[in-house]
Structures are given as C-alpha cells and as structure tokens.
Amino acid sequence: MDNANVSLLPDDFSREMLVEILSREPQGCFVWSEFGSALSQFDKEYMSGIKDMLADMYDCPDSYKRLLKGGEFNVENPCLSILGGTNIDWMLDKKDVKADLRGGFLARTLFVPYTSKDFEMDTPGEVDRQWESKLIGFAKSLGELHPVRFEIDSLGELRHELKRELDKIASESEYLIELSAAFTRYQAVGLKLATLYAVSMGEWGGQIPVEAMECAINAIRILRISILDILGSVPMNRDDKILIEVMNKMQQLHANGHLWIEFRDIMRYTHRKKGEIIPILDSLLEMGKVRQNGKTYQLII
C-alpha cells in the first residue's frame, strides 16, 4: 500500500492530531496489526470521543469541522478505511464492545473470520516480485482514475430482497438490537461492494450491473455469519432479555386480534414495571420495530 502511494494514517495519535492531519489529507487508511490494541487506546482519557468521530467520518459526510486550540479545522469529503486483525476473544474482553456493536464504531465494521491455518508459510516468506509489481501498478492506476458516478436504479428489487432477508434474521434473534444496528450498515456495505465488483468487471460509471449486486449480496450472506458468531460470545444483559420478552408478548397479543396494544396491557402481560418497559419501547421505536399512537403500540413484523 505504501509503494502504491496509498495514504496511510498514523498508528498512534490523539483526536486533535488526527483532525489536523485529515484537514490536510482527508482520505486515507489505518492499518492496525492488532485491532484490540487500538480499541484499548480509544478508552484512554485523551482519546475521549474518538470512536464517535471515526464513526461519523466513516459515513462520509460532506465535511467535518472541529475547533481546536490552533484554530478551526475543516475536513472536506472525508473517506476513511480501517484494515486490522485481532483475536476475537481479546477484542470481546474490552468493556465497551457491546455498546460499540449496538450502534457505534464496531457496527460499521465488517468481520471476516479466519478459523484455521491450512498452509505453512516459508521462513522467511518469499515475495513474488512480478505479482507485487502488478498489484502496485493496479493500485496506482485506481488512484489516477477521474471521479465518476455509479447509478443504482436497476438494483431496487435486489436491495429490497437483502433488507427483507436481514430484517427477518434480526427479528428472530435474541440479539435484535445489535443485529439491527449492524445489518442497517450491511445494506449500505452491499452497495459499496457492488460498486467494487462493478469496477472489477471493467465498469467505470453508469449503472451498476445486476450481476455485481448479486455478488455483493452473496458476500453479505457470508459476512453476516461472523457477526452472529461474535454476538453469540457476548453475554446478554438484563435489558436485552426484557426486550425479547416484550416483543414476544406483543406478537402474541397481535395474533389474538389486538391491532393496537395499550401500554398498561404490555405491563400486565409481561409483569414488568413502568420504569422497565418505557426504555424498551423507546429502543424499539428508535429501531423502527414498533409504531406508536398515543398510549398504544403496534409491533412491525
């Protein structure tokens, strides 16, 4: 990546330092040989707010502004990537990992699992210089291409199909909150992957081919397994169990003919107190899993 003139961002930084760097060079890639160590660094006091900032920039806003001691810094058209590896057990040991999986930093991460080593690497490994030269040349050529716009008008049905598939998996899981957060991003990732597949097919601008989106959806189906495995290793907390209980009871009431469910009935059938039910319904409303009409609620199946 370095030989191909890819902008590599520093391994170690403060939030203020990173903003200054990105104000000069807003596109780049972090390469972290140990992703767990980076997460540990983010929990330090001087890195406060860094995960929120990275999550915001990862969504590619038009600009990001921050006022520092040295003045106001503007990051125009930020585009950040992160490449890293870690032992999953070590990563899950971090104290904020569950919150990050729910909707913040880690919900924007694609986890590509590697379960076993089926080869032995030479020591030292020998580099195929011919292939290295081709790869560097290809990466450089991408950086020299002029910007174009890809269109997605022909992908509507495939996108809806992916959404329905992911929504069904999330709604049937005890990890509804975390999966809803991750799968919302996976739908956007599907379009990004489809764009990359289109480029690999020789396209540069215009409509993204349906075949490229089909490849992207198949990739998402593989990658979603890894997030399910990771969540299965994270202990559920008390609120998660109440959320699943509330959804199950609402589903039963709908099946018995209740189109809208009174708040008091949710408390009565779950045997839960008002203070326990209110934050759960707020979470379900935020996720788009229920709709509200006054003091009545309806589960969106």
Topology (SSEs and partners):
Elements: H1 15-24, E1 27-32, H2 35-42, H3 50-58, E2 63-68, E3 71-76, E4 79-84, H4 88-92, H5 97-103, H6 129-143, E5 150-151, H7 156-171, H8 176-200, E6 206-207, H9 210-232, H10 238-255, E7 261-262, H11 263-270, H12 274-287, E8 290-293, E9 296-299
Parallel strand pairs: 1-4, 5-6
Antiparallel strand pairs: 2-3, 7-9, 8-9
Strand composition percent: 5-15%
Task: Please identify the oligomeric state.
Answer: single chain
Q: Count of helices?
A: 12
- C-alpha Rg, in Å? 23 Å
How many runs of DSSP E, i.e. beta strands? 9
Q: What is the domain total for the residues? A: 3
Give the N-to-C terminal Cα separation: 46 Å
Structural classification: alpha/beta
* SSE series: HEHHEEEHHHEHHEHHEHHEE
Largest sheet: 3 strands, antiparallel
